[in-house]
Amino acid sequence: LVLVCTGLLHGPLHAEEATPWGRGYFPDTELVDQDGRHLRFFEDLIEGKVVVINFIFTGCGDSCPLETARLRQVQQLLGERVGTDVFFYSISIDPLSDTPEVLKAYAAKFKVAPGWLFLSGDKEQIDQLRRSLGLFIEGVDNGRSRDHNLSLIVGNQASGRWMKASPFENPWILADQLANSLQNWKQPSAEQSYAEAPQIRPPSHGEELFR
C-alpha cells in the first residue's frame, strides 16, 4: 500500500478543520448513481466516511470485471456494514456510454448488494477528480478508456488517512482494513456503535507476509 496522507483528530473538530484533505481539497463533483440520483462527491459521498473508490468502465473486457468481482467478495465479507459505516463507490471513466441504466445493469450482473454505488458524470470533472486522488497518470490516460490506473483508493475522510490499494488484494486483507484499521481512526461518536456489527477475522500471518 502507498500511504497518501495521515491525520490525527484532537477533539470534536469538523472534518474539514481536522485535515487538509477536506472540502477545500476534493472537488465537489456532481455525479449520478445507478438509480439516477444526483450526488456531490465530497458532501454526499465521502465527508466523514470510510470509503473505497475505484474507476471503471462497463465496456472493459478484462481488468474491470475482475476488479468488480474481487470487490464483490470484499462486500460479502463486510455484509451489512457496506452502506452503513463503509461505503463503496465505482466511478465510470466513460460517462457517455455508462448511463445510469447501463451502470444499474452492470451492478446487477455482478449481484452487487445495497450500499455500493456506481456513478457517472461529466468526463472532464471526473478526470479532475481522478487527478485529486492521484489516479490520473499523464501519458497513460490518453483518451483511450482501456488505459487507466487500476488502483483503489481507500480512506477515512474524517481523519485524513488515505492510501492506495491493489484491486486484487487478498479480500480478507482489504475487508480488515475497511472494517477495523480505518475505523479505529474515526472520530468517536455517541451515535455510532459497532458492538453488534459483523466481525472480520484478522488476516493470518501468512496472508500478511505473502500479500
UniProtKB/TrEMBL annotation:
Keywords: Copper, Disulfide bond, Metal-binding. Residues 20-158 form the Thioredoxin domain. CDD domains: SCO. Coiled coil: none annotated. GO terms for molecular function: metal ion binding. PROSITE patterns: THIOREDOXIN_2. Disulfide bonds join C60-C64. Gene3D superfamilies: Glutaredoxin. Residues 186-211 are annotated as: Disordered. Cu cation binds at C60, C64. Belongs to the SCO1/2 family. This is SCO family protein. It comes from Pseudomonas brassicae.
